[in-house]
Design a protein that fits this description.
alpha/beta, Cobalt-precorrin-4 Transmethylase, domain 1, Methyltransferase, Cobalt-precorrin-4 Transmethylase, Domain 2, 2 domains, 5-stranded parallel beta sheet, 5-stranded mixed beta sheet, 7 helices, 26% helix
Length: 202
C-alpha cells in the first residue's frame, strides 16, 4: 500500500495522529532530506526525494505490495506530490492523509480568513498576473523564480500596487517571519521559503 502523508508546515508537532501511526508502521519512507531527518530511528528502507520524479515512480512501482509512506510538505494535494502519485497509480493504490498546508498555517497566524480564497502556485509554471489581479484574495505557493519581489512587480505593473501582501517565510520554524506590506512598498530583498497571500484590502 502506498500512503502519502502531509507533514504540515514543519516539524512533527504538526503531524496528525493518523499520520504518525502510518509512519510508525511503514516498511519504507520516501521524502526530502529534511523530512527523513525527522525520523532518525527509522530502521526500514528510505528513498530521498529529489527532482527525478520518474525514478521515484519506478522505485514505488516495484514496491506497491509493501507498506510505503511518502512524506510530503504541507498538504500533499495542495500543489504537492499527492496529485502526481494519484494520477500515476490511481486512487485505488494510493491513500492520502492530509496535512496542514502552509497556506492554512499562514492564514491562521496572520488572522486572514480563507473564505473565497483563490489558490495558485508558481512552481514550474508561468504566473498569469492578469488573471491574478481579477481576484480579491489570493494565496500563492512560491518558488525561486517567482517569489514576493516578482509578485509585487507584477501587481505594480498592473496598477495594483495598493494591494496588501502577507509574506510568510520559514513557516512554523524557529526563524519564521510574517510580514504585511503593500506591493508598492516591497523592498526587493531575498526571501526564504515562503507563501504569499495577496489582499485587495486589509
Amino acid at each position: 500500500m502506498l500512503t502519502v502523508v502531509g507533514m504540515g508546515p514543519a516539524g512533527q508537532q504538526w503531524l496528525t495522529p493518523a499520520a504518525l501511526a502510518v509512519i510508525n508502521s511503514a516498511s519504507a519512507l520516501v521524502g526530502a532530506r529534511r523530512h527523513l531527518a525527522q525520523f532518525p530511528d527509522f530502521e526500514g528502507e528510505t528513498f530521498t526525494l529529489g527532482a527525478d520524479i520518474p525514478a521515484l515512480l519506478d522505485w514505488l512501482a516495484a514496491r506497491l505490495d509493501e507498506n510505503i509512506v511518502v512524506l510530503a510538505s504541507g498538504d500533499p494535494l495542495l500543489f504537492g506530490i499527492g496529485k502526481r502519485l494519484v494520477d500515476h497509480f490511481g486512487i485505488a493504490q494510493v491513500r492520502v492523509i492530509p496535512g496542514i498546508s502552509a497556506v492554512q498555517y499562514l492564514c491562521a497566524q496572520a488572522g486572514v480568513d480563507m473564505n473565497e480564497l483563490w489558490l495558485t502556485s508558481s512552481h514550474g509554471r508561468q504566473v498569469d498576473f492578469d488573471q491574478l489581479v481579477e481576484q480579491n484574495k489570493v494565496a500563492m505557493v512560491t518558488d525561486r523564480v517567482c517569489g514576493p519581489r516578482e509578485i509585487a512587480a507584477g501587481l505594480v505593473a498592473r496598477g495594483m500596487g495598493h494591494r496588501w501582501m502577507v509574506i510568510g517565510e520559514n513557516l512554523a520554524m524557529d526563524n519564521e517571519r510574517i510580514r504585511w506590506l503593500r506591493a508598492c512598498d516591497e523592498p526587493g530583498e531575498q526571501y526564504d521559503m515562503n507563501v504569499v497571500v495577496i489582499l485587495n484590502e486589509r
